[in-house]
Amino acid sequence: MKIDPRVIHSQAIVKNTSSQLTHLLTLYSKSTKTQTNSTIILKLFNQLPSHDVVSWTSLISHFSKTTLSFHHFISMLRHPTSPNQRTFASLFATCASLSDFSFGVQLHCVALKLGVCYGAFSASGLISFYCKMRVCDSARKVFDETPERDGVCFSTMIVGFAQNARGIDALGCFGEMNKWGLTSCMYSLSGVLRAVGEVAVAEQCRMIHGHCVVTGFERNVVVGTALVDGYGKCGLVVEARGVFDELMVRMSVIGWNAMMSGYAQQGDKDLVMELFGLMEGNGIEPDEYTFLAILTAFSNAGLANEVKCWFEKMKMEYGLEPWMEHYTCLIGVLGRVGRIVEAERIALTMPYEADAAVWRTLLSSCAHHGEADMALVMSKRLLELNLYDDSAYVILSNVLVSAGRLDEVREVRKLMKHRRVSKEGGKSWIELPGEVHVFLAGDKTHVMSKEIYAKLVELREEILKLGYEPVVDETLPEVDKVVKREELWYHSEKLALAFALVSRAAPPGKALRIVKNLRICRDCHMAFKYISMVVNREIIVRDSNRYHKFLNGNCSCADFW
Question: What angle do CA 23, 26, 31 make, to 5 degrees?
Fold first, then answer.
């Protein structure tokens, strides 16, 4: 039961002891931060005959997330009173909240000098600070140098990696935590499940689900929501729905949104709308993320009018102001159906400054519809935001090639070379039980390279018979075209697929699942449609934009991505 500080306060007035005042100060520091409480805390602090580390830390903690905590910390050092682990943990949290990297690094130095940096409590605070400042390598260094790492330390590191899109590192840290024999908690499990969704490793998600059952967390709503999110991002919407249905009556709007988002990534608008109806029927009020899932579902299905309709409903009927992400979704689907002028007008008049994602989306739409002049405009706007954005050059070059404007293509490539812009390297990965195999284009380092390349030769021969033609850059000299055809055939996603087939990554009849860090290229997309017929298997690829389900020569994206 939570103790009301006013009860202790009345006793302290009567007894007037230093220990009572210190205890009271600690209680007030943990209570709601109101102007009245802040005034009382300062008065109590000044009434103390002497100030120890507990009273100083209580004062600093109360003013956390404000620069006043720094002011009181400096006063503490001048008195002098040596801070302890809890003092530094509170201060590191304040630095992260205020994005004050400089002061945080100085605090790190002071903690090192005083010998309290590597206690589990202060180390956890420091790891969290560095992760929130996007300096995960420094966080990992602190973690590795902490001799007594407890569950909090591990959980903080796992969550930090997950929040910084370093899913493989988070999974490794979770495995290390289990090897140490430390008990999992709600934070470590939700963090590692976020990481699983980031890298889309389905088997790892199933294994962690089993771990949740064994440790008794399968009924925890926070972990359950993370499971729904993780399964959804891995494309396992049936498993996600199973977890969701068990916890439905206890799910908050976050859990409902996670389930809807999982369906939206698949373009399954019907199930998204079914869930939306159930959600309102259960008295759950939709928020901005709910409508983002709805817009995404209709956008992935290519239904521009429905996206516009729900975009307006969001504002007029539900009183929610669209975010940049909602506008990007609307702009993307309008571009997809060829309404590029309308999409551009929205990008220029919306209440936000259009970011790179907006102009890149419009540039891709121009490329898809062969609008070379519009593509030049969108590319220019994208380069105004980032002169070294490789997609601006690559997509523009592709659309100019299709339009036969070869002189302009050469100028774009010359400019790209002059500015030393290189295309981001593609990599793909595929999961086996307990393992993740990563491939780069032309990769020959894998232990099964010989079998992989032999399988690719076999597949190419088969799909050529079915009418497959490589999608090669037409501006290249004839000699370069031959080389380019070879390079295309050894893209990372093709290597991953060949490995899946030779290693029997999935039992017969089950889908082969591949993840890629970039958008799948046009040639691989075409090849996978033919390969799905040759191997008579469903092939699922999650690229940076969406899920592609290849089956019987077709793709779920309807050739737009």
Answer: 125
